[in-house]
Structure formats: C-alpha cells, structure tokens
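Entry type: protein chain
Record version: 2
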Amino acid sequence: MRKIVSRGRFVPRSGQDAFQVLMDETDLRRLSDITEPGFFQRIRDTYKDGKKKKLVENFFSLSLLQGINYLLPFITLPYLTRVLGVGNFGLVMFAQAFIQYFIMFTDYGFNLSATREIAVNRENIDRISEIFSAVLFIKMILTVFGFAVLCLIVFAVDKFSSEWMLYLFTYGIVIGYTLFPVWLFQGMERMKYITLLSIAAKLVFTVSIFIVIRERSDFLYVPVLNSLGFILAGILGIWIAIKRFRVRFLWPCWSNLRNRMTDGFHIFATSFLPQLYNSSTTFILGLLTNHVLVGYYAAAAKVVDALNSIIYVISQTFFPYLNRQLSSHKSFRNIIIGTGLVLSAIIFWKAELLVNIIFGSEYAESIMLLRILAFCPLFVATIVCYGTNYLLIIKEDKLYLRITMISSIIGFSAAWVLIPLLAQTGAGLNLLFSRALLGLLTLAFAVRFIKREAHQKSQVAAVT
C-alpha cells in the first residue's frame, strides 16, 4: 500500500517561508495567542539571524505587495466604472479577458519552474545567466508569436477589427509580463524588488487614471496606461538583474531551451486550464452577447475575485508550513474553509450594498450576479485546501492536473450552453458551476487519501 508523505515536493524559497520561522505547530493552532511574551522575543531573535532576517523581509515584502494589490483596484474601479459607463467598461474587460490567454501562454509556468532552477543554482552566476537568458529568450519568442496570432484574429474577425487599437494596446501588458523577471527575484530571494517595482507600476497606473480618464471616449487610454506601467516595471526589472545580480545575456543553446520548455510544461498546463472557464466565461459572453452585459458580469466578478485573493494569501502563507507539518492540515482546513464561508456570507447578504458603493446605481443588474457568484469563495477555499495544500503536498500532481483538466473542459463546454440561453446570468452560473465542480472533485479525491492515511495509522497503532 502506497505510503503518503508530506515532503518531497519543491517549494520555492521566498517570503512565505518566513511564516515557518515565526510559527511553530502550537502557534498554528493558537493563532490568536500572539501576545504571549515569547512571541515577540522570537521575532527579535529571528531578525538577528542574517538568513532568517532575509526570510522575514521577504514575507513582509509579499504582504505589502498583496495589500497594495487589494487596495488600488478598489480606488480606481469605482471611478472607472462610473466614468466609462457599463458598455465601455465591459469592452475593456472583454479585451483583458482575451489578452489573459496570451499572458498565460507567454508565462509558460516559468514563474515556478525557473524559480526552482535559480534557487538551486543561486551561488553560480554563470548558471543563473544561462537560465535567465534561456527563459527570457523563450518568453520573447512566445510573445512575438502571440502578437502575430493576435493580429491575425483581430484583423480577420469583425468582432475584433472594429476596436483593433484596444486589443493591440492591451497586448502591452503581455510585453510587460515578459520583460519582468519575477522568477529571478523569487529564486534569488529578493522579493523587495518585486514589491517595489510592482507597486511603482500600479501607482503610475492609478494616478494616471484620475488624470487622463475624463469621459467615456477615453476608454482607449486604460490599456495604454496599464501597459506602460507593466512595461516600465519590466524594463527596470531587467536593469536590476544586470546591474544588481550581474547576470549576462548568453545566446542559449538548443538543449537548454528544450530543458526549460520541458520543465515548465506541466506547470503551464495546470495554470492555463482553469482559464478555460475563468477568463473564457467573460470572453464567450462578449463574443455571444454585447459589451454592456459583459460590464455587468465583470463588475460582479471583480468583487468576488478581489475577496478570493484573501483566500489565496492564506493558502500561500501556510503552504510551506504544511509541506513540513501536514499533520496540521486540519487546523488549516478550519481556517481556510471558515474564511470562505464568511466571505461568501458577506457577499450574498451585502451584494446590493457592495454594488451601490463600488459601482453605482447604473450597475443594478450586477446585484443578482454577485449573489450567484457569492458562493465562489467557499469553493475556492475548498480547492486550495484539498488541492494546492493537500494533493500537491503528497505529490499527487498528476491526479490534481487530471481533476483540473476535467473540470476546466466541462466548464468551458457548459459556457457555450448556459451563456446563449441565459446571457450574463448564464455566465455567472457557469463560473459558479465550474468552481464547484473542481472543488467537489478535489475534496472527494483528497478525502480518499485522508481516509487511507487514517487507516494506516490505526493499523500501526493496533500492532504496537
């Protein structure tokens, strides 16, 4: 009988690992008891240790970045939705959903696979230069290829050609993602650079929105400003990589390129498949209906996605700890599922208030959509609880990939049925159905392993 293990899967060393430095198993079970005298003493002792100090700095850098990521959209979103109007806002969101495919395609899983290679070879600058050059070269080739595909679609399909400038300007985000070497900073454990550059780009975009966007016809400036922010961050990231880390661009050999593509494929597949029902829901709604209905749906989805981010942060924070102490998964389950329940309840009961405050009365159609999507945080919590933080930890990567693939294909197929029948309501139901399916399948398979582990422990206890 196969033994379930809680170690062996690579976890990139990053600021998340600082959580393990600050917390032991007892702290995990008693999160509220941080006022005990020894807690702050452990923080002071940790900060005196050079290596642990870096981990603590990385952790707070990530926390600050996540905080900014939550705050800034809630500053610009109410302004944009009111100034642009439902139709133009929906058009911009439709373009972003379309470009999201190209972002995932050009990323190709390098944010994890390249991070792993750099972390292992971080003391070997020649090896890092080889990895850096190969990854950047591949991403640039994929970006050029993606742009050619974009142009082919935009100028060949009437649905896109009428607003061709919008899609070309939005593609600048892909260029920014390609240039920004987040995988290098993660592997080198220099998360502060990610934080500073990302915040700088978002602040430039946020301030510019209030200066430039004045009326509905200014919607084209939204992707321009967004793209310029990402490209600026990418250029500065390359400059820091060369000046601070002394990396050099080396012409990559074919074997190196092949290895990078092979290492990133499974991660790419796992990351790309959920887009079949996530971004595709917005995309298919725009293809089959109109941009006004996309605006109603996108507004509700934006609120849910912002609150879902809280769940993802909790998941990312606990993930390194659970890799070492899987026995604490029950405590983590209570925290993450409880958070999902609370968020779902808040969204459902306060949907009307949230829509009126954030978007205004023009988006009244989004209220019912928000109530439909209200249950998504609960299913997202289930997915990260039993998928990312259990199946992946016990090295059931292929099983989790199959579950994701099945759920994504079914969700993608269902969208072509529900959206023509129910328009934006069908889009909301499809997203909820897809996340519920992935969550329940993940839960079902994870429970089988949990029961098997409990049975093994009972047998061992009976023998002893």
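Comment: The chain has two domains: 56-275, 277-464.
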